[in-house]
C-alpha cells in the first residue's frame, strides 16, 4: 500500500476526473441493477400476470419497497392499457428496458472517459518525473546501473503502473457496487435464496486468492529480467563492431537466449495464473448459479414461495454478479503487477541526489583570478584515486595533466565539473568553494571536450547550439571556423542543417571531435577542460583538431588532460601524475631537463 500512497500525489491534478469517475461508476452500478429489474414487468406482461392496479400506490418505507415497486409498475401498465391493447403495455416495458440499458452504457462510457484522462495524465507526469530524475542524478549513479534497466523502468514499468494500478478504482468502486446493488435487490426478491448464495461467495474468493499468491514477487522478477534483456540489446547495438571482430556472436546470442528463456518461464507462470482467473471465477460462478437453479426451482415449483417471473429476474441478477466478480479477480491480479512495477519506478524516483545546489547557492557568471585545488582525496569505491592532491590554475594559464592511465587525470575533470564530489579537501574558483556555487552557474563557466565525441541524432546546428539555443547561423558558422570544421560542413548537402545520424556516425572521428570543439567554442566559457580530446584520432585528424584546440584556447584558462604529449608542449605548466599524486611540475623544457618521469614518457612516445 505504500506505493499506492506514493502514487496519490500524481493523481491530485486530475482530482475532478476521479470524482466524476466515481459518480458515473455509482450510476453505472445502479442502472446495471435497474436494467435487470425492468425484465420483471416484461415477464408479467408476456405471461399475463399483470394485476390491475387503478389506485396509485403510496410509498410507506424501505421495508415495503418490493411491494411498492411491483404495485407502481402494475399501476403504470394498468393506466396505459386502459382503453388500449396489451401491445401498448408491451411497448412501454420494452422502451423502459431500452432506456435503462442506454443510461447504464452511457454512464459506463462517461466513467471510462474520465479514467482514461486520469490514467494518461498520470502516465505523462510519471514519465516527466522519471526523465527529470534520470537527467538530474549524478554520473556516479549510472556507473552502477545498467542503461537498459533504467530504460525498462522508464518505459515498461511506468506503462504497467498506468495499465494496472488504476484497476483499483474499478476494484473498489464500480464492480463492488454493482455486486452490492444486485445483492440488495436479490435480498428484496428472496432473502432465503440470497443467503444461500452468500455461502458460496467466500469460498470462491478464497480459492481465487490462493491462486494469486506470490504473483507480485514473480512480476517484480519478470520486470527485472526485462530490464536485463533491454541492457543486452543496448550493449549489443553499441558494441556491434567489437562483437563481430572477436567472433563473439555466439556468446551474446547465448546471453540473450538465456535471458529470453528466463523471461518466457516467468511470463508463462504469471500469464498462466492470470489466464486461470477468468475461467475459474466463471466456473465457480456458474456452479453457484447451477445450485441456485436447483434450490430456487424448488422454491418456485414445490414450496411455491417464489413466482416464476421473480425467479428469472433473480437469476439474471445472479448472472449480473458474475461479470464484476470476474473483473475484480482480474483487477486484483493486475494490481499485483502494478505494485511490482511501481516498486521499481519509485526505487529510481526516491534515489537521493547528493550532488545538488545548496540553498541560497552563489550565482557566478565570470572567472576572475584562479582555480585552487587544495589537499583533495577522492575514491570511486575503496581505493584512493587522488591522494592529498593540490594544484593552482591562474586565469589565462594552460595547465596540462599527463601520466599513465589510472593516474587520476580524468578524475580532476570530473571533480571540477562536480560530476563527482571530493571526499576530502576543497576546490575553489576565485576563492569560492564549488560546492557553494549554484550547479548550473558552475558548469556555465566551463566548456568540456571529452575523448568520446558525444553527439546526438540531430542536425549540426542543433548539436553545436546545445549550450546556446538562441545562436544564429552566423555565430554557429563562426564557431565551426574556429574549430577548423567549416571546411567539411560547407560541403555537406544541407550545410549546418544536415542530420549527422545516431551518435554522429555519418561523420569520421576527427569530424565529430571538431564539432564537439565547435560546441564548446560557441558556449564561449572562460574555463576550458579538454579530457584527452585527441587521443582517439589518427595523425591527420589530430593535426586538424590540434589547430582547432589552439584556436579555442586563446585568451582562455585551459586544463588539458593529455595522453599524446606532442599536443601539450606549449602549455604554461605541465603536471605529471602518478597514482593520484603530482611527481613533477614545470614547462616542457624544464621537465625535459629534469630527466625524470616526463622525459621518460616523451622518449617512449617518440619511439611509437
Automatic annotation (TrEMBL):
Its localization reads: Cell membrane
User: GO CC terms for this protein?
Assistant: plasma membrane
Its transmembrane ranges are: 22-47, 88-107, 179-208
A GO molecular function annotation here is:
ATP hydrolysis activity
Q: Which SUPFAM superfamilies is this protein grouped with?
A: ABC transporter transmembrane region, P-loop containing nucleoside triphosphate hydrolases
Sorted alphabetically, the keyword list is:
ATP-binding, Membrane, Nucleotide-binding, Transmembrane, Transmembrane helix, Transport
Q: Does the keyword Transcription regulation apply?
A: no
Give the record's membrane topology. Answer: Multi-pass membrane protein
Q: Where's the ABC transporter domain?
A: 371-604
Domain ABC transmembrane type-1 per the UniProt entry, residue ranges? 19-337
Question: Would the keyword Nucleus be found if you checked this record's keyword annotation?
Answer: no
Q: Name one Pfam family in it.
A: ABC_membrane
Q: Which Gene3D superfamilies match?
A: ABC transporter type 1, transmembrane domain, P-loop containing nucleotide triphosphate hydrolases
Main subcellular location of this protein, as a coarse class? membrane
**Cross-referenced PANTHER family:** ATP-BINDING CASSETTE SUB-FAMILY B MEMBER 10, MITOCHONDRIAL, ATP-DEPENDENT PERMEASE MDL1, MITOCHONDRIAL
What's the protein called, per UniProt? ATP-binding cassette, subfamily B, MsbA
Q: Organism, per UniProt?
A: Flavobacterium micromati
Amino acid at each position: 500500500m505504500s506505493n499506492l500512497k506514493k502514487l496519490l500525489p500524481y493523481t491530485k491534478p486530475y482530482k475532478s476526473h476521479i470524482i466524476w469517475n466515481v459518480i458515473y461508476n455509482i450510476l453505472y452500478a445502479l442502472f446495471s441493477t435497474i436494467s435487470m429489474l425492468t425484465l420483471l414487468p416484461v415477464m408479467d406482461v408476456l405471461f399475463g400476470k399483470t394485476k390491475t392496479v387503478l389506485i396509485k400506490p403510496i410509498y410507506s418505507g424501505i421495508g415495503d419497497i418490493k411491494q411498492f415497486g411491483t404495485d407502481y409498475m402494475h399501476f403504470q401498465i394498468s393506466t396505459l392499457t386502459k382503453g388500449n391493447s396489451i401491445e401498448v403495455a408491451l411497448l412501454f416495458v420494452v422502451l423502459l428496458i431500452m432506456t435503462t440499458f442506454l443510461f447504464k452504457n452511457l454512464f459506463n462510457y462517461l466513467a471510462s472517459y474520465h479514467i482514461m484522462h486520469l490514467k494518461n495524465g498520470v502516465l505523462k507526469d510519471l514519465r516527466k518525473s522519471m526523465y527529470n530524475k534520470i537527467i538530474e542524478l549524478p554520473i556516479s549513479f549510472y556507473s552502477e546501473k545498467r542503461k537498459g534497466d533504467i530504460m525498462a523502468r522508464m518505459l515498461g514499468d511506468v506503462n504497467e503502473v498506468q495499465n494496472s494500478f488504476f484497476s483499483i478504482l474499478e476494484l473498489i468502486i464500480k464492480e463492488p457496487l454493482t455486486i452490492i446493488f444486485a445483492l440488495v435487490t436479490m435480498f428484496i426478491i428472496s432473502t432465503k435464496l440470497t443467503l444461500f448464495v452468500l455461502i458460496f461467495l467466500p469460498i470462491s474468493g478464497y480459492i481465487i486468492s490462493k491462486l494469486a499468491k506470490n504473483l507480485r514477487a514473480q512480476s517484480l522478477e519478470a520486470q527485472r529480467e526485462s530490464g536485463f534483456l533491454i541492457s543486452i540489446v543496448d550493449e549489443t547495438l553499441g558494441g556491434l563492431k567489437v562483437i563481430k571482430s572477436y567472433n563473439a556472436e555466439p556468446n551474446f546470442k547465448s546471453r540473450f537466449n538465456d535471458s529470453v528463456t528466463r523471461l518466457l518461464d516467468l511470463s508463462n507462470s504469471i500469464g498462466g495464473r492470470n489466464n486461470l482467473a477468468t475461467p475459474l471465477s466463471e466456473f465457480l460462478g456458474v456452479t453457484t448459479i447451477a445450485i441456485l437453479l436447483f434450490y430456487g426451482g424448488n422454491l418456485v415449483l414445490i414450496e411455491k414461495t417464489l413466482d416464476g417471473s421473480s425467479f428469472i429476474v433473480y437469476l439474471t441478477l445472479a448472472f449480473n454478479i458474475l461479470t464484476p466478480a470476474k473483473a475484480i479477480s482480474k483487477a486484483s491480479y493486475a494490481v499485483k503487477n502494478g505494485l511490482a512495477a511501481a516498486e521499481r519506478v519509485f526505487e529510481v524516483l526516491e534515489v537521493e541526489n547528493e550532488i545538488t545546489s545548496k540553498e541560497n547557492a552563489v550565482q557566478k557568471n565570470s572567472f576572475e583570478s584562479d582555480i585552487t585545488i587544495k589537499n583533495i582525496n577522492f575514491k570511486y569505491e575503496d581505493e584512493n584515486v587522488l591522494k592529498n592532491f593540490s594544484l593552482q590554475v591562474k586565469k589565462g594559464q594552460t595547465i596540462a595533466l599527463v601520466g599513465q592511465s589510472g593516474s587520476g587525470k580524468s578524475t580532476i575533470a570530473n571533480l571540477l565539473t562536480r560530476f563527482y564530489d571530493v571526499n576530502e579537501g576543497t576546490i575553489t574558483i576565485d576563492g569560492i568553494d564549488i560546492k557553494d556555487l549554484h550547479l548550473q552557474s558552475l558548469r556555465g563557466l566551463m566548456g568540456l571536450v571529452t575523448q568520446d565525441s558525444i553527439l546526438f541524432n540531430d542536425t549540426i546546428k542543433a548539436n553545436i547550439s546545445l549550450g546556446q539555443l538562441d545562436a544564429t547561423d552566423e555565430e554557429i558558422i563562426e564557431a565551426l571556423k574556429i574549430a577548423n570544421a567549416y571546411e567539411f560542413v560547407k560541403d555537406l548537402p544541407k550545410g549546418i542543417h544536415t542530420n549527422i545520424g545516431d551518435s554522429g556516425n555519418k561523420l569520421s572521428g576527427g569530424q565529430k571531435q571538431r564539432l564537439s570543439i565547435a560546441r564548446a567554442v560557441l558556449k564561449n566559457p572562460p574555463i576550458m577542460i579538454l579530457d584527452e580530446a585527441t587521443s582517439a584520432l589518427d595523425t591527420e585528424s589530430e593535426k586538424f583538431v590540434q589547430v582547432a584546440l589552439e584556436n579555442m584556447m586563446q585568451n582562455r584558462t585551459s586544463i588539458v588532460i593529455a595522453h599524446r604529449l606532442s599536443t601539450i608542449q606549449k602549455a604554461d605548466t605541465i603536471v605529471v601524475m602518478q597514482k593520484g599524486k603530482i611527481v613533477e611540475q614545470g614547462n616542457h623544457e624544464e621537465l625535459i631537463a629534469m630527466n625524470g618521469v616526463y622525459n621518460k614518457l616523451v622518449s617512449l612516445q617518440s619511439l611509437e
